[in-house]
Amino acid sequence: MGCGMAVDANRVIAGGVLVFVEPETFKKFLELKERPLVIVGETGGFKKVKLTMTTYDGALIITRGEVELPERAVVVNAKELSLGK
């Protein structure tokens, strides 16, 4: 996982344009930015799902599971993650 910088967040609420992609496509989005902001966390009730997210031109790009992140990534570890409201 990237270690350019890592911070913890108590709660992240994601909304707007949500785009779900496969992990390989997600990695291509990370390559488009010099220092990508990446949010990692879990969502769901009984069945927790790990999500990895980044932004690109106003859209939130999301993939399920963990992705190997570049060293230059700024990583936010979300303790609680919610998609939309």
What are the key terms here?
single chain; 85 residues; mainly beta; two-stranded parallel ribbon; 1 helix; 8 strands; 48% strand; globular
Task: Please characterize this protein's 3D structure.
The protein has 85 residues and is mainly beta. It is globular, with a radius of gyration of 12 Å. The chain has one helix at 23-31; strands spanning 5-9, 12-14, 17-20, 37-43, 49-56, 59-64, 74-78, 81-83.
Q: Count of helical segments?
A: 1
Order of helices and strands: EEEHEEEEE
Q: What fraction of the residues are assigned to beta strands by DSSP?
A: over 45%
Give the overall shape: globular
What's this model, at a glance?
The protein is mostly beta strands.
What is the element layout, followed by pairings?
Blueprint: E1 5-9, E2 12-14, E3 17-20, H1 23-31, E4 37-43, E5 49-56, E6 59-64, E7 74-78, E8 81-83
Parallel strand pairs: 1-7, 2-8, 3-6, 4-7
Antiparallel strand pairs: 4-5, 5-6
